[in-house]
């Protein structure tokens, strides 16, 4: 009897855990639909709401852009040097540029840009906002427009800006590291980069950055939307958001790798 009772208890816990997991993802989908509907509404960009939206966009992007630009430039220089030296030692110098573009621009920069914005901005901001909110039975449309939408939009925009600026900066550093300060290598350089960025690869890169930005902007604020100040265990709240966010980012990265190389 004890074995049957423990088995039944385990099945009940498994059922409750599965229902709670599905419910959490359903809440995230519902919150995403709300935010996208606000993003398509002209009233979200009215004159009275533009200063708040602009403040969040600048505050969440400018500091991250400066720090991430410096860090990505240093890391890119080190990785470019490693790839160049390794390719030269194996007699594969003609493939060095293509490897740099594929490893850094296509894979590492979008992933690290999204992780940087998440750890530095959206996850702490979502937790802080949930702690400052007053527990209410319902959330008005005005609160959605004035409080939630600017924070979600700023997280999405920050990922776009960091990824775009870092990709351009890495391409410039790759050219300077391989060819130096000379304009005569530009035709060959642009030809190799153009061969890497074919339409399919470019589309996958853009979609990956877009989906990364959606995950970074939406997941932390979705928990604040549904739980807010009534959610007691703030540590568990932050950890669950982080686990969910990086699980989604991992799935997006795996899908992009399959699209690029299979």
TrEMBL record:
GO terms for cellular component: ATP-binding cassette (ABC) transporter complex. The keyword Lipid metabolism does not apply. The chain crosses the membrane at residues 25-45, 65-87, 99-119, 155-176, 196-221, 242-261. Keywords: Membrane, Transmembrane, Transmembrane helix. The keyword Signal does not apply. It comes from the Bacteria. This is ABC transporter permease. It comes from Duganella guangzhouensis. The lineage of its organism: Bacteria, Pseudomonadati, Pseudomonadota, Betaproteobacteria, Burkholderiales.
């Amino acid at each position: 009897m004890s074995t049957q009772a423990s088995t039944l208890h385990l099945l009940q816990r498994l059922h409750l855990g599965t229902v709670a997991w599905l419910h959490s993802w359903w809440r995230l989908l519902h919150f995403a639909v709300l935010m996208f509907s606000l993003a398509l509404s002209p009233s979200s960009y009215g004159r009275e709401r533009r200063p708040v939206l602009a403040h969040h966009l600048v505050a969440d992007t400018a500091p991250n852009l400066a720090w991430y630009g410096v860090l990505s430039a240093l890391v890119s220089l080190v990785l470019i040097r490693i790839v160049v030296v390794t390719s030269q030692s194996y007699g594969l110098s003609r493939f060095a540029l293509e490897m740099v573009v594929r490893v850094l621009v296509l894979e590492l920069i979008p992933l690290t840009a999204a992780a940087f914005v998440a750890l530095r901005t959206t996850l702490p901001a979502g937790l802080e906002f949930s702690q400052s909110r007053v527990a209410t039975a319902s959330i008005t449309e005005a609160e959605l427009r004035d409080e939630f939408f600017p924070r979600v939009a700023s997280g999405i925009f920050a990922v776009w800006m960091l990824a775009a600026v870092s990709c351009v900066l890495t391409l410039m550093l790759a050219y300077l590291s391989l060819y130096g300060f000379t304009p005569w290598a530009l035709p060959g350089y642009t030809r190799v980069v153009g061969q890497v960025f074919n339409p399919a690869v470019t589309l996958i890169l853009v979609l990956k950055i877009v989906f990364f930005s959606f995950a970074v902007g939406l997941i932390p604020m979705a928990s604040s939307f549904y739980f807010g100040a009534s959610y007691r265990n703030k540590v568990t709240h932050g950890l669950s958001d982080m686990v969910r966010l990086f699980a989604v980012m991992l799935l997006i990265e795996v899908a992009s790798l399959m699209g690029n190389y299979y």
